[in-house]
Specification:
TIM Barrel, alpha/beta, binds flavin mononucleotide, eight-stranded parallel β-barrel, globular
Length: 388
């Protein structure tokens, strides 16, 4: 283990984190009663960027996941993260996968990258408890949620704790339960979006990188269904901005592999997603990318996470930086090609200020870090010190 304490303690269960977290520097920031969020952004000039209609100090923050409740999100604001996402909520209480939920992962390549579509993802990536920088991990939670009676008042508190130039972004997703028709599934998204609106939220991000029924496929691999869902959700939330969170969607045809000669010959799969959503006005922003699925093995080649259905898990952190940058550049190219103006939130493997700069250069209007921020609570301060 490294000598710093992530604000989400990977050695504890999700429930213990929910009840006792955050930890480390976030706990200290939270304990500073009377510390005004504005004090913590004093290293930032006055609100300087617009993000989906809101003034923000720096378009950098933490995506859906490690910030479990308003104590975590408030601490994140106080640590200078200006875009702070409340972990994905559902229309109903939903259990968490068994502990452990996080392992360190060690891809074979020299730079620690995992390439989408590579054999390594199926053959097995070493996963254990040796956490090292630059950090890559796997997370396996199953998107747990508290009951709306619990998360709604808490989300209200989270929104109220934003300082000047800071923004709380709720995340939500639909829930598939046995016997549901497609219409029921769409309606569950609408219900959840309405519950989010009731907290006073002015925008939200919908997770589409969740399993879709019957196949080993994600919702975002079905652009037509995402189109139907976002249309229904947008009808419910009115003028509030809707972002959707995407998993990595590979180009339809590419030449030059991942080398310097890489050329996208045909990007129609990703373009179809844009046409079904942003081009129809139902979606104002894309958040990309979510984790990349890999088979995780221990040092003896056995399944690393215990339990059925957990041979594969999502990898995040440094290992997916190339893939995230690739998706952002392609979303920017499609935006240009179609003459649209959607916002791009770039994420995946941001662990240093240089990564923030690289994402902005690839076309991201805002940048976020989950794993990198977990292992470096000062990441927002470091980026602010670098880019100003
Ligand atoms: C502990 C943890 C929990 C996560 N939970 C969620 C979630 O509930 N909803 C979601 O859309 N993404 C979730 N994610 C994915 C992140 O939002 C992000 O897409 C992914 O981790 C890649 O970013 P990173 O490389 O900066 O970690 C989670 C990530 C982590 C590390």
């Amino acid at each position: 283990m490294t000598d710093f304490s992530p604000f989400y303690d990977v050695n504890l269960s999700y429930d213990d984190n929910y009840a006792k977290g955050p930890f480390g520097a976030f706990a200290t920031a939270l304990a500073g009663d009377g510390v005004d969020a504005a004090d913590c952004v004093k290293d930032t000039p006055a609100a300087s960027t617009t993000f989906l209609g809101h003034r923000v100090n720096l378009p950098f923050g933490i995506p859906a996941g490690p910030l479990l409740n308003s104590r975590f999100t408030t601490a994140a604001f106080r640590m200078g993260f200006d875009l702070v996402t409340y972990k994905t909520v559902r229309s109903r209480a939903w259990g968490c996968n068994p502990f452990p939920n996080v392992l360190a992962v060690h891809p074979k390549s020299v730079d620690g990258s995992l390439t989408p579509g590579s054999a390594e993802l199926d053959e097995g990536v070493l996963a254990d408890t040796r956490y090292e920088q630059p950090i890559s991990i796997s997370n396996s939670f199953g998107v747990p949620s508290r009951d709306p009676d619990e998360w709604q008042p808490d989300m209200r508190r989270a929104i109220a704790a934003a300082g000047e130039g800071q923004l709380l972004i709720p995340s939500f997703q639909g829930s598939r339960v046995g016997g549901m028709t497609t219409d029921d599934y769409i309606a569950d998204h609408v219900t959840t979006a309405r519950l989010v609106v009731e907290t006073g939220a002015d925008l939200m991000v919908m997770n589409t990188s969740c399993p879709n029924e019957g196949h080993n496929r994600l919702l975002c691999h079905d652009p037509a269904l995402v189109g139907r869902i976002t249309e229904a959700v947008k009808n419910e939330i009115g003028d509030r901005a809707l972002a959707i969170k995407l998993a990595y969607i590979p180009p339809t045809e590419v030449s030059g592999g991942w080398g310097p000669d890489r050329q996208i010959v045909d990007d129609s799969a990703l373009e179809l997603m844009v046409r079904e959503t942003a081009a129809r006005g139902t979606v104002q922003a894309f958040s990309a990318i979510n984790t990349i699925s890999a088979r995780l093995v221990d040092a003896s080649g056995q399944q690393a996470l215990p339990g059925a259905g957990r041979d594969r898990s999502g990898v995040c952190g440094r290992a997916i930086r190339h893939a995230g940058l690739d998706m952002v550049a392609r979303l920017a190219a499609i935006r240009e090609k179609l003459g649209l103006d959607y916002t791009i939130i770039g994420l995946g493997g941001v662990v240093t200020p240089e990564d923030y700069v690289a994402y902005r250069a690839s076309g991201a209007d805002a940048v976020m870090s989950a794993t990198g921020a977990m292992w470096d609570a000062d990441l927002a301060h470091k980026i602010k010190a670098t880019v100003h």
